[in-house]
Design brief:
The complex is a heterodimer.
Chain A (H helix, E strand, L loop, with lengths): L1 H8 L21 H28 L2 E3 L3 E4 L2 H7 L1 E4 L2 E4 L4 H31 L5 H13 L2 H12 L10 H24 L4 H9 L4 H12 L1 H16 L16 H10 L3 H26 L22
Antiparallel strand pairs in A: 1-2, 3-4
Chain B lengths: L5 E10 L2 E11 L4 E5 L6 H9 L6 E6 L2 E2 L10 E4 L11 H11 L4 H14 L15 H13 L5 E5 L7 H17 L4 E5 L2 H7 L2 E6 L2 E6 L1 H6 L4 H6 L4 E11 L2 E6 L2 E6 L6 E7 L4 E4 L5 E10 L4 E7 L5 E6 L11 E6 L4 E4 L2
Parallel strand pairs in B: 3-8, 3-9, 6-7, 7-8
Antiparallel strand pairs in B: 1-2, 1-4, 4-5, 9-10, 11-12, 11-14, 12-13, 14-20, 15-19, 16-17, 16-19, 17-18
Helix pairs in contact in B: 2-3, 2-4, 3-4
Classes of the chains: A mainly alpha, B alpha+beta.
Chain lengths: ~325, ~350
């Protein structure tokens, strides 16, 4: 599942859009260097394709390598649906965990992005006492092993006054705080590319901080919004660490279901489930991209003044 | 007599141990263009940001019009600013940029668009309303920034080095346009620059700053002709500064000895004794050797409409920088020359 995560955010997670730049084409590499680069990257590419090909193909044959007879049995076991007395219903064994996973991840996504970007803005553009310690604390949740956090959640929320274990809420909370640092980092990277004089211009024009945040900063932060949402969603779907202590019969998750299938030797179902997850996540990523969209900064993306290019009308 | 548009009373700004602005006082009259002039790090930009409300003073009071704005934020001050980088919102069209302040202040959309379009026409950008800032040239972006600032009809309009991102040719033109606009609309403008020529050209008054303090405050002419310190004389107009001795006062005039030569010029209160003489490069005449100051041409450069010389003067340590309009018969490097200092281009500076 780590692989799923990686392919999903390889491009997106580090996407930044510059507010400045020369806008020129990169220079051609020397032939020798080019050969070295290709020599390094092509085997890697081949390996990646092989691994994903295996996952996508492996679920649709009886036993990959030994009996390559195509079959849809595993897919059907996991994701079948039938028409019963009350209409269509989902009878496959993977449906409950799949739906729970997607549901909880989708709920966590906007919260993670919003909280992460707001935190980034606070850290970058506002000064308040204890700012450094605050930054350290929010980044901490990334450094502590997930399983430790899982145990901590159980200790903290298993008994009243705040009893949350056994419910979906605690899984969502775990997702949000676990993935918050990435939203913050993406936000900080993006904010550092937005000239502070834009904030100041907005202030001197009479807009206060909330208005400035909403009308000037947020529209320019779209790349960070996409990054934070995509990462949050993908990381939530593929999480196997903290959540192992938080799932229950009613709230099982995809990753844990897959681990369970592998444990009992039911490899076919495990592989086909992985394949479905990959495809589904790609669709969600494309949907987020289409929904949030790109920043509109003009045909020349670099917003640098270029004096003398266009004649000034009298 | 109305209150000054901007008034600073013993205003200081400290960043930890660093003093950016050190207890300065000034008052700026309405409908004046006042320049804050000085080298990098002299506190001029901090002073501008204090007026804008983007910085809060550590001590002292700031008044705009009749009200005390010392503790008000930038959003509450009736002041607009044209930023060095223009700071146009890159995701908004030109019209949206100019409307922004009006909309933030609660003006209805249709009315805001009308006012914004009028101001765009005023700065010569009618027809550019739907462009994005990235589709405009530097000069056009600057006009948008000006339109965005003046559409709010602020009590004070601030310019932070507005010409520094423009090429040399455009600079002179935009400079004149800013001055014309200021006079047509009777705007109170505070203008920050490090370029003394720019300051002399546009200002009603110049406040020269140095190391967080005001070095001199006056009209362009008074600063140029009567600098009150070595710093101001050196910073404005490339003056040569020579160590001299004022031998005696003779009414309004002072008799001044420079090595073997003596000249007479108004003393403006500089007492007898050691002093400095600031002499403009164009006020040094080079000619045949006839006694008085003599020297030798150290370097000569042809600049089209004038010659520039460095002259090693006999008996003086420093070389003189000389501008000579005579390009037809240039002097050669190494030539011996007689030197005449014209009192009209010279001023005495306290040591």
């Amino acid at each position: 599942m780590r692989r799923v995560e990686r392919v999903a955010d390889r491009r997106r997670s580090y996407a930044t859009v510059t507010g400045k730049g020369d806008g020129g084409l990169p220079g051609a590499l020397p032939a020798a260097l080019r050969a070295v680069c290709l020599g390094a990257i092509l085997p890697r590419l081949a390996l990646t394709v092989a691994v994903y090909g295996m996952i996508l193909a492996g679920g649709f044959v009886v036993s990959i390598g030994r009996d390559n007879t195509p079959t849809l049995d595993y897919l059907w076991t996991a994701f079948s649906f039938e028409k019963g007395v009350g209409g269509w219903f989902l009878s496959g064994s993977a449906w409950p965990s799949f739906i729970t996973t997607i549901e909880l991840s989708l709920i966590a996504m906007p919260f993670t992005a919003a909280l992460g970007l707001l935190t980034a803005w606070l850290l970058d553009r506002q000064s308040f006492p204890g700012r450094r310690s605050f930054e350290f604390l929010v980044m901490m949740s990334f450094a502590i092993p997930g399983t430790v956090i899982g145990v901590a959640y159980i200790l903290a929320f298993n008994v009243p006054p705040v009893s949350l274990t056994g419910a979906g809420t605690i899984i969502v909370i775990s997702f949000v705080f676990r993935n918050l640092p990435v939203g913050i980092r993406a936000g900080l990277a993006n904010l550092s590319q937005i000239d502070r004089s834009l904030d100041e211009a907005s202030l001197t024009l009479g807009a206060r901080s909330p208005g400035t945040l909403l009308r000037v900063i947020l529209p320019l932060m779209r790349p960070a919004v996409v990054t934070a949402m995509v990462y949050s969603f993908v990381a939530a779907v593929t999480a196997v660490s903290a959540v192992i202590f938080l799932t229950t019969g009613a709230y099982n998750l995809a990753t844990l279901y897959i681990v369970g299938r592998v444990d009992v030797g039911d490899l076919g179902v495990a592989i086909v489930y992985s394949a479905v997850l990959i495809v589904f996540m790609l669709l969600v990523l494309l949907a987020i991209q289409a929904l949030v969209g790109e920043r509109r900064l003009g045909r020349r993306t670099a917003a640098r003044p270029t004096p003398g290019l266009v004649s000034v009308p009298g | 007599m109305s209150a000054p548009a901007v008034e600073f009373r013993a205003v200081s700004k400290r960043y930890g141990p660093v003093v950016a602005v050190d207890s300065i006082d000034f008052a700026i009259a309405r409908a004046n263009l006042v320049t804050l002039l000085g080298p990098s790090g002299c506190g001029k930009t901090t002073t501008l940001r204090l007026i804008a409300g983007l910085e809060q003073p550590s001590a002292g009071r700031i008044l705009i019009g009749d009200s005390d704005v010392t503790t008000l934020s930038a959003a509450e001050c009736d002041v607009s600013m044209v930023f060095q980088s223009y700071a146009l919102f890159p995701h908004m069209t030109v019209l949206e940029n100019v409307c922004y302040g009006l909309r933030a202040g609660g003006t209805a959309r249709a009315r805001a668009r009308e006012l914004a379009a009028a101001k765009l026409a005023l700065v010569g950008l009618a027809g550019y309303e739907q462009r994005l800032p990235s589709e405009l040239s530097g000069g056009q972006q600057q006009r948008v920034a000006v339109a965005r600032a003046i559409v709010l009809e602020p009590q004070v309009l601030l310019f932070d080095e507005p010409l520094s991102n423009l090429d040399a040719k455009l600079r002179r033109r935009v400079r004149d346009e800013i001055r014309a606009l200021q006079q047509d609309l009777s705007l109170t403008v505070v203008y920050v620059t490090h370029d003394q020529e720019e300051a002399l050209a546009v200002s009603d008054r110049i406040i020269v700053m140095n190391t967080a303090r005001i070095a001199q405050d006056g009209t362009p002419r008074s600063l140029y002709e009567r600098p009150n310190s070595h710093f101001v004389a050196d910073f404005i107009g490339d003056a040569n500064l020579l160590a001299v001795v004022i031998e005696r006062h003779d009414g309004e005039q002072a008799v001044v000895r420079i090595g073997p030569a003596v000249i007479t010029l108004p003393h403006h209160g500089v007492p007898p004794g050691p002093a400095e003489l600031a002499i403009r490069p164009a006020a040094v005449r080079l000619g045949p050797v006839v006694g008085g100051l003599t020297g030798r041409i150290a370097t000569a450069a042809y600049l089209g409409d004038h010659m520039e010389y460095q002259v090693a003067v006999d008996g003086l340590v420093k070389e003189l920088f000389v501008i000579d309009a005579n390009v037809a018969v240039p002097l050669d490097t190494g030539a011996r020359v007689g030197i005449v200092l014209e009192a009209a281009g010279a001023a005495l500076v306290p040591p």
